[in-house]
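Dear colleagues,

I hope this message finds you well. In preparation for our joint manuscript, I am sending the Stage 0 sporulation protein A homolog (Mobilitalea sibirica) sequence together with its predicted structure, so that both groups work from identical material. I would be grateful if you could confirm receipt.
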Amino acid sequence: MGHILIVEDEEAISDLINMNLTMVGHTGVQAFDGYEALEAVKSNRFDLCLLDVMLPGIDGFSLLEKFKDKRIPVIFLTAKSSLTDRVKGLKLGAEDYIIKPFDTLELLARIEVVLRRGGNSNDIFHCKDVEVRLDERAVYKDNQVIDLTAQEFALLEILIQNRNLALTREQLLEAAWGYDYMGETRTVDMHIQRLRKKLDWDNVIKTVYKYGYRLEVPKE
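The corresponding structure tokens are as follows:
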């Protein structure tokens, strides 16, 4: 998992991001202006920085230039949605540019992509007697191979990446099936039941009443 610097001057947004990062196993450090961010990188090694553009003190574009010698990958999180700003951010060297408001699942997925690109993502997940090797798309229980369909594994991967977060059936459909599902959500329930049975995870994949599901594991 990653050690992530959150540079966001709106405290409520910063706290929410930090809470979600912590829930899935990352660690976060919060900075609320450009000068705090510079001080943070002097005394910490970060795997990633989530960076607002409009900040007190030093703006995000200028900070990115100052971060280059630290080799910290940057994802911009900003309300500045113009094409000019997006192109500028990416040309300056940002890994990604996300417009506010953003969906938590999308943010976590894009963070995972950047961490994997930098070799800072843990591709092996353990829970009880189950080992999931995400890079190999392989699952073992008591060192025995568990056969999952491609769709079962896709659903499992989304649950793991967003562990300890409650996900709606609609979110799971969009993330694991790759499209906005307009009909019955029963297919999610069916696949969840199959995963529970194959992995013996009745007490790991929790049902969130009238909402969806949560993969519940101890925080790392």
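For the figure legend, we might mention the following. The chain has a mean pLDDT of 91. The longest strand covers residues 3-7.

With kind regards,
E.M.
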